[in-house]
Amino acid sequence: MFDEAVTEGASRYKAAAMIDVSERTLKRWRSGCGAVVEDQRPHAVQGSQSHQLTHEEERAILSACNRPEYQSLPPSQIVPLLADQGAYLASESSFYRVLKKHQQQHHRGRMKPRRQVPEPTSFTATGPN
After folding, report:
1. For residue 3, how far is the Cα from the chain centroid?
2. What average pLDDT does the segment 19-26 reach?
3. pLDDT at residue 127 greater than cutoff 90
4. Which pLDDT value is given to residue 88?
């Protein structure tokens, strides 16, 4: 679309504004031979990874973490216990990622939860003595 607009006489600046991308970005996207390279924007829609966890695997991780015998343990202890039973669902980091995604990565265990400590009150220097 950009190339068509430029060949029909539109300026590069206006053609880039028409597709809502800066002209500098379009220059960066083109390689030395003029071909368009892959989209490098961080927020661009990317394809799914081949090794990404499926929904069934995520549900299996959540059900394992929510079992009564594991519900008070962190993933760093759940994964080895499951491995001792001969069950490998995912890595420890995947457990943490799935729990965070489903907002279950909160306080787990018998220790007291982290408490909010108020900001210390102190004197602030506003000028010289």
Report:
1. 34
2. 78
3. no
4. 95
